[in-house]
Design brief:
Distance between the termini: 37 Å
CATH class of the largest domain: Alpha Beta
CATH topology of the largest domain: Metallo-beta-lactamase, Chain A
Strand content: 15-25%
CATH superfamily of the largest domain: Ribonuclease Z/Hydroxyacylglutathione hydrolase-like
Strand order of the largest sheet: 1-2-3-4-5-6
């Protein structure tokens, strides 16, 4: 039996910089191309010199597949394609293609414009990189070439996240990326066809973590927010990942309606606002409840949550403010 070779270029016994090189049936596939939030040196991106020390990566890779838009899975993509050099196909779902460049540009602004780092990808490189993207539809078999085929499945986790089944001849691999088997307020649970891959490569960041029930955690969170508001206080909520921001907004919006609360809720403008536009657009990727009520009301059209303006900071009385900080996001549920 021909061997299947799996080489972690990142995220091997580590959290962050997800990048797995799979060699199967003479084909080389890169699964995710992330960055590590804990480093600012050469360890920030995967070590692509393992693939080749001279020349571009195009001759050594048949395709690249990105599971979802979080930076620990896509943050090195423009560096890999535009600075190291790769001209082949990059596969990701339609929502990932829409949101990925927003996060990459925010990351570039912080790194280059604010921190003053050099030798980093530019805005134009992000655009050029995204031109190489081939969008994937769920459950659609895509023929990369005569022998290599891939099929994407719903992974939950964040909007557009996908697991992928890769086949070359009679051999196959399933790569999960980040996935969630528990549906939340805006996404369904991960789902895949019954299959028997030769190898399963699975996300395992929280594999040994036992948590309190989500309902208990949400109840405690809302209780603390409510107590602060009742005392006339201000609540500051840092949010470290896109997707969690939307989940928190729905949680607070529902609670505010149920309790008939009047205190204002604000979210930081910019990146979250842009992303919310795509959450409204890709409503078919959300869970059944949100899709069912979409005609009457889009759950991402918030009644109680408004964009924050700096002039509101000194307003008297209670308020809640969500602050989105993707650049300190290391890993996510």
């Amino acid at each position: 039996m021909p061997e299947i070779k799996v080489t972690p270029l990142g995220a091997g016994q580590d959290v962050g910089r997800s990048c797995i090189l799979v060699s199967i049936g003479g084909k080389n596939i890169m699964l995710d191309c992330g960055m590590h939030m804990g480093y600012n040196d050469d360890r920030r991106f995967p070590d692509f010199s393992y693939i080749t020390q001279n020349g571009r990566l195009t001759d050594f890779l048949d395709c690249v597949i990105i599971s979802h838009f979080h930076l620990d899975h896509c943050g090195a993509l423009p560096y890999m394609s535009e600075m190291v050099g790769y001209d082949g196909p990059i596969y990701m779902t339609h929502p990932t293609k829409a949101i990925c460049p927003i996060l990459l540009e925010d990351f570039r602004k912080i790194t280059v414009d604010k921190k003053g780092e050099t030798n980093f990808f530019t805005s134009q490189m992000i655009k050029d990189c995204m031109k190489k993207v081939v969008p994937l539809n769920l459950h659609q078999t895509v023929q990369v070439d005569d022998e290599l085929e891939i099929k994407a499945y719903y992974a939950g986790h964040v909007l557009g996240a996908a697991m992928v089944h890769i086949k070359v001849g009679s051999e196959s691999v399933v790569y999960t990326g980040d996935y969630n088997m528990t549906p939340d307020r805006h996404l369904g649970a991960a789902w895949i066809d019954k299959c028997r891959p030769d190898i399963l490569i699975s996300e395992s960041t929280y594999a040994t973590t036992i948590r309190d029930s989500k309902r208990c955690r949400e109840r405690d969170f809302l209780k603390k927010v409510h107590e602060s508001i009742e005392r006339g206080g201000k609540v500051l909520i840092p949010v470290f990942a896109l997707g969690r921001a939307q989940e928190l907004c729905i949680l607070l919006e529902t609670f505010w309606e149920r309790m008939n609360l009047k205190a204002p809720i604000y979210f930081s403008t910019g990146l979250t606002e842009k992303a919310n536009h795509y959450y409204k657009l890709f409503i078919t990727w959300t869970n059944q409840k949100i899709r069912k009520t979409f005609v009457q009301r889009n759950m991402f059209e918030f009644k109680h949550i408004k964009a924050f303006d700096r002039s509101y900071a000194d307003n008297p009385g209670p308020m809640v403010r969500l602050i989105f900080h993707p650049r300190v996001h290391v890993f996510d549920e």
